[in-house]
């Protein structure tokens, strides 16, 4: 019920407006959201298209790159004679540190650049010394244990022209010395043997055998410093790929020698490649070799595939026949190098590439983070041995325009929302004011009617009495006449007041200003008012204003102001009237006048009901009437104080109120004095 009452016109307009606004704003928000969504989808599509194009280009570039490599390999695989090592070395010089070029033949495997392969799948068949050449010496050594004669025999063989016989002779001579306990002599022989370099002794290069033997002899001799030095140099040379040995030979020697080598050297042999990478590369070569030997998958068409050695990826490319083939083992560094080449030769601006193996395991990724949008070219699609992935290099840059548009749209929507809210506020305020004005006006009409009714009623009754001649006593009649006269006076004042208010509202209230003595003016009003209210027991106490020696001055103190006599009197009358009206219990009202600077200050004080602090400003507004039981009991129209303010201000003065509910009110009027 209360809601219904509140919703009466014109408030329903506010609710309607609010509803429409809400619906509008929701529609606007929804539309904006949809628009942004579509915009984003469009932008994604555009990005997708761009990435597709870049992926195709990158795949094509990779294909070309591999084709060029295979071309070179194919040429190398058919090159013969002394040209091959030169051509191969030239080609291999372009490779990065973790890549190797290999030439595969029935004789074994050649790798380029030299020294990068620390061990190999096979070694070439070695020349053997003529059978039985050492038989006599060994019989003396092992069966007869005649080391002297055996040594002599082996020394003579170590002078042979055949390097394999020489190497075999030296090796045995040193062995005989060791057995005879001549360790220093054995060391010297090993030094000679080492000089024979790659000459094979029992499948291994003479130098390796000799240097390893020296290490063991030095260990027996406990020559620690020399042992350390020689072991380290041997270890480094093993990792520098100095000898053509197989995995077991490499493992055996590195493990044995590694025991005498400092741990820092074990982990980094001092080569450009780390131990780990060198081993991985050798293992990858082993895989390529196995592939070739087993004819996987078809030697004529070549083969290319990604293999993993532990965590290290290698791309194996092989081309040629089962008799002779060429291959490349490319580690991550080499792949990275090719990827950079692909990026440089393609217009791949703003995109980042990544490569993975056929199963999708990442090999190299240039993505800055996990990209939302990426395009993949699987190995099956491109014929490449790897999966290619393309993503935007910077999503922020791609979506920068989108973000800008979104910002603008949000700004626009916020402005619209703000405008709507402002207009909603304005409408609500307007309607509320309208309602308030309507209420005030109807209150005013009721109040005015009420004001009129009382004097009219009493006048009508008295005139009726008089007219019918029912009042016998002259005294009584005289009293009735005076009441009628007072009531008509009151009506007159009421009508004048209303007319003045009307003129004031219309801006047509005129003031006839003249020099007036303020004390006399106040006294006149007070006298007249005292007569009016005296009967009801009220007393008006006037202080100051040259009241013949009393209060604040004597006859000499006269103050002149420029004022409209009638208007100012009406204003003071209104103040006194209010003081009496709103002071039902205390029947005394005070009016003081004191000069202050260039002004005369007139205060009207009462000890009445007072005014609530929140109402003290509003009492000067037209039609405003105070609330509360005590005030409601008093008749009034709510225009008195607005008239007072208007009149006082027209005189260049001001009016203020100080009040405390229950303790009374003081209305202060300040008017400028006529100077001089
Ligand atoms: P009215 O007296 O006809 O209601 P006014 O404009 O003279 O209209 O006064 C406005 C309101 O100010 C009053 O309704 C009353 O609430 C308050 N008011 C004015 N004078 C006094 C006073 N002396 N003491 C208490 N309240 C007052």
Q: Would you mind describing this structure in some detail?
A:
The chain has 676 residues and is α+β, with helices and mostly antiparallel strands. 55% of the residues lie in helices and 16% in strands. It has 21 helices and 18 strands. The strands form five sheets. Strands 2-1-7-6-5 form a five-stranded antiparallel β-sheet, with helices on both faces. The radius of gyration is 61 Å and the shape is rod-shaped. The two termini are 67 Å apart.
List key phrases describing it.
binds adenosine-5'-diphosphate, 16% strand, alpha+beta, 5-stranded antiparallel sheet, 676 residues, 18 strands
Task: Summarize this structure briefly.
The chain is built from 21 helices and 18 strands. With 676 residues, the protein is an alpha+beta fold.
The helix count comes to: 21
Mean pLDDT: 87
Helix/strand/pairing category: alpha+beta
The N- and C-terminal alpha carbons lie at a distance of 67 Å
pLDDT < 50 stretches: 547-556
Number of strands: 18
What is the helix content? 55-70%
How can the largest sheet be summarized?
5 strands, antiparallel
Oligomer: single chain
What is the strand and helix layout of this fold?
Blueprint: H1 2-6, H2 11-78, H3 83-92, E1 99-105, E2 108-112, H4 135-143, H5 147-157, H6 163-179, H7 183-194, E3 200-201, E4 204-205, H8 206-221, H9 224-239, H10 247-258, H11 263-267, H12 275-293, E5 303-309, E6 312-320, E7 324-331, H13 332-345, E8 351-356, E9 362-365, E10 374-377, H14 379-382, E11 387-392, H15 395-398, H16 400-467, H17 474-506, E12 514-517, H18 518-534, E13 539-543, E14 560-563, H19 565-581, E15 588-596, E16 599-606, H20 629-632, H21 640-650, E17 654-660, E18 664-672
Parallel strand pairs: 13-15
Antiparallel strand pairs: 1-2, 1-7, 3-4, 5-6, 6-7, 8-9, 8-11, 10-11, 12-14, 15-16, 16-18, 17-18
Helix pairs in contact: 2-13, 2-16, 4-5, 5-6, 6-7, 7-8, 8-9, 9-10, 16-17, 18-19, 19-21
Adenosine-5'-diphosphate binds next to helix 19 and helix 21.
């Amino acid at each position: 019920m209360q809601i219904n009452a509140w919703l009466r016109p014109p408030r329903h307009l506010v609710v309607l407006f609010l509803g429409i606004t809400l619906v509008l704003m929701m529609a606007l928000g929804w539309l904006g959201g949809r628009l942004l969504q579509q915009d984003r989808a469009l932008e994604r599509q555009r990005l997708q298209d761009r990435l597709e194009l870049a992926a195709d280009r990158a795949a094509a570039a990779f294909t070309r790159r591999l084709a060029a490599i295979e071309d070179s390999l194919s040429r190398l695989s058919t090159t013969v004679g002394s040209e091959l090592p030169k051509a191969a070395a030239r080609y291999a010089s372009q490779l990065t540190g973790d890549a190797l070029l290999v030439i595969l033949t029935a004789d074994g495997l050649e790798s380029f650049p030299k020294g990068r392969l620390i061990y190999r799948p096979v070694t070439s068949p070695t020349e053997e010394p003529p059978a039985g050449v050492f038989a006599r010496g060994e019989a003396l050594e092992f069966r007869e244990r005649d080391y002297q004669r055996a040594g002599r025999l082996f020394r003579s063989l170590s002078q042979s022209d055949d390097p394999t016989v020489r190497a075999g002779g030296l090796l045995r001579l040193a062995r005989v010395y060791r057995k005879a306990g001549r360790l220093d002599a054995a060391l010297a022989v090993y030094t000679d043997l080492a000089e024979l370099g790659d000459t094979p002794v029992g499948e291994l290069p003479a130098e390796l055998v000799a240097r390893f033997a020296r290490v063991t002899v030095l260990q027996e001799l406990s020559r620690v410093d020399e042992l350390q030095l020689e072991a380290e140099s041997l270890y480094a040379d093993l990792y520098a790929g100095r000898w053509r040995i197989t995995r077991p030979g490499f493992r055996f020697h590195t493990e044995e020698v590694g025991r005498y080598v400092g741990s820092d050297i074990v982990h980094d042999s001092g080569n450009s490649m780390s131990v780990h990478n060198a081993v991985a590369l050798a293992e990858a070569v082993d895989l390529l070799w196995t592939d070739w030997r087993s004819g996987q998958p078809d030697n004529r068409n070549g083969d290319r595939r990604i293999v993993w050695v532990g965590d290290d990826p290698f791309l194996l490319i092989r081309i040629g026949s089962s008799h002779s083939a060429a291959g490349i083992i490319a580690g991550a560094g080499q792949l990275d190098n090719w990827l950079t080449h692909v990026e440089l030769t393609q217009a791949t601006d703003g995109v980042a590439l990544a490569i993975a193996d056929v199963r999708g395991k990442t090999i190299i990724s240039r993505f800055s983070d996990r990209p939302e949008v990426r395009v993949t070219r699987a190995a099956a699609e491109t014929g490449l041995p790897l999966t290619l992935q393309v993503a935007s290099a910077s999503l922020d840059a791609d979506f920068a325009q989108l973000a800008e548009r979104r910002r603008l749209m949000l700004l626009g929507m916020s402005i619209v929302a703000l405008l709507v809210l402002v207009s909603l506020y304005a409408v609500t305020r307007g309607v509320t004011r309208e309602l308030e004005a309507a209420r005030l006006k109807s209150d005013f009409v009721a109040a005015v009617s009420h004001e009129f009714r009382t004097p009219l009623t009493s006048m009508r009754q008295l005139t009726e009495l008089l007219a019918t001649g029912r009042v016998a006593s002259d005294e009584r009649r005289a009293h009735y006449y005076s009441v009628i006269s007072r009531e008509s006076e009151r009506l007159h004042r009421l009508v004048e007041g209303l007319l003045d208010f009307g003129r004031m509202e219309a801006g047509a209230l005129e003031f006839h200003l003249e020099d007036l003595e303020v004390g006399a003016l106040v006294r006149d009003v007070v006298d007249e008012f005292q007569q009016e209210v005296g009967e009801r027991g009220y007393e008006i106490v006037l202080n100051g204003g040259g009241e013949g020696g009393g209060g604040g001055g004597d006859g000499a103190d006269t103050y002149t102001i420029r004022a409209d006599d009638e208007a100012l009197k009406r204003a003071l009358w209104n103040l006194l009237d209010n003081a009496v009206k709103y002071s039902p219990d205390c029947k005394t009202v005070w009016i003081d006048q004191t000069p202050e600077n260039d002004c005369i200050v007139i205060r009207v004080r009462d000890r009445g009901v007072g005014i609530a602090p929140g109402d003290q400003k509003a009492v000067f507004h037209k039609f405003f009437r105070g609330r509360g039981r005590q005030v409601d009991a008093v008749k009034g129209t709510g225009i008195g104080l607005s008239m007072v303010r208007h009149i006082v201000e027209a005189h260049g003065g001001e009016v203020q109120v100080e009040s405390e509910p229950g303790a009374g009110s003081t209305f202060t009027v300040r008017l400028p004095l006529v100077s001089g």
